[in-house]
Amino acid sequence: MDPVVIEPATTPAAQVEAASIWARATDVRDSCTVPSDPAAKLEGIQERLRSPCATLHMARRGDAAQGFALLVPHGSELELVYLAVDPAAWGRQTASALLAHVASYARECQFDSVDLWVLADNERAIETYARAGWQLTAQEKCEGNRRELQMMRPFARWG
């Protein structure tokens, strides 16, 4: 099996790939019987990429896109806005590789921490983040019947 390679992705084609992955992953997570339209996911990705210094990072095995992370800086903190892995790559360490890449990127850019919001009922994601060193904070937010928990990956202050 080819190794996972993660690189910054700056092309519109990479944004479309990420939107397709996100649509497939949420369809499986939510047990959807009708496939989601990736165009709606693409709008969300493009909106977040308009944030100053936002970056998209694609995980590939060979030529196949396996997952992505979208990062947005906020002062000394970095937010992991989206992380999705194609269901065909679940269980193949793609999420772990992406999270290790995010941590390395944050250290390299000297961020104090990385945070994210995760659906409270997404136990698979919460466990994956926890294995990678993320910790639940006391913060949560609710929109309608959707409850999200904040997780954070702190780093030592840079000198």
What key attributes describe this structure?
4 helices, 159 residues, globular, 7-stranded mixed β-sheet, alpha+beta, Aminopeptidase, 7 strands
Write a brief caption for the model.
This protein is of the alpha+beta class. α3 (94-108) links the parallel β4 (77-85) and β5. It has a seven-stranded mixed β-sheet, sandwiched between helices.
Account of the protein in words:
The protein is α+β, with helices and mostly antiparallel strands. The chain has one domain (4-154): 3-Layer(aba) Sandwich (Aminopeptidase). The chain is 34% helix and 36% strand. It has 4 helices and 7 strands, in the order E-H-H-E-E-E-H-E-H-E-E. It has helices at 12-29, 38-49, 94-108, 123-131; strands spanning 4-8, 55-61, 64-74, 77-85, 113-119, 135-143, 146-154. A 7-stranded mixed beta sheet has the order 1-2-3-4-5-7-6, with helices on both faces. A hairpin with a 2-residue loop joins strand 3 and strand 4 (77-85). The N and C termini lie far apart (40 Å). The mean pLDDT is 94.
